[in-house]
Design a protein that fits this description.
The chain is built from eleven helices and no strands. Helix 3 packs antiparallel against helix 9. With about 200 residues, it is mainly α. The longest helix has 26 residues.
């Protein structure tokens, strides 16, 4: 893959990773609940989900969705339902003036499972790969070129959210966030429910 083309790919992946959404809310929640390790675990498992969709894309996900639009709609509705469930969960965790320790507590296993599932159930991520990443794949793209595309998407996504988790878990940053965790949970819950509603009403803009 030419360097100029790879730089365009990296820029697209970086913009997708850095855009606010449920992925950022997920890493934030697990970092608040368990510290640096669960936050990084969520970030890395999310990157695996991103890599899975990138792999499907280079294998022809776009063509599959054009041929079977009902299947794609089913994925969208499933993703919207999961986002709504996460939003309700965050709102319930945010009740009261302060969070109890058990309400915000999280484990590595929970972080890994939710990180992967949020990536798989995020309709915005599906549309991102189908609409953008597939443009870098042609019938002439070699196996090595496809591997570079998948690896780039995974590394940029994982690297960004690991950086987020490390920054949030800093000794001076995390206590400040934990003191305001009830508001953060409410904000992320509303954001997740809003995204789920937007997906249910129509395609993302």
């Amino acid at each position: 893959m030419p360097l100029s083309l790879w730089m365009s790919l990296a820029a697209v992946c970086a913009m997708g990773a850095m855009s606010p959404g449920p992925s950022l809310a997920l890493v934030l929640r697990h970092t608040l609940g368990g510290g640096r390790v669960p936050g990084m675990a969520a970030a890395l498992s999310h990157a695996l989900g991103v890599g899975f969709y990138a792999l499907l894309t280079v294998w022809g996900l776009g063509a599959l969705i054009v041929r079977f639009p009902t299947l794609f709609q089913g994925i969208i509705w499933a993703g919207a339902g999961y986002l709504a469930w996460l939003g309700i969960k965050s709102l319930r965790a945010g009740r009261g003036a302060m969070l109890a320790a058990s309400a915000a507590e999280t484990t590595r296993v929970q972080a890994v499972s939710e990180g992967f599932l949020v990536a798989l159930g995020n309709p915005k991520l599906i549309l991102f790969f189908v609409a953008l990443l597939s443009q870098f794949v042609t019938p002439e793209t070699s196996l090595a070129g496809k591997a570079v595309i998948v690896a780039t998407a995974m590394l940029i996504d994982g690297g960004w959210y690991v950086l987020v988790a490390m920054s949030l878990s800093h000794s001076r940053v995390l206590p400040w966030l934990q003191a305001r965790a009830h508001w953060i949970h409410r904000l992320t819950g509303v954001m997740l429910l809003g995204l789920a509603l937007r997906v249910a009403l129509g395609p993302l803009g």
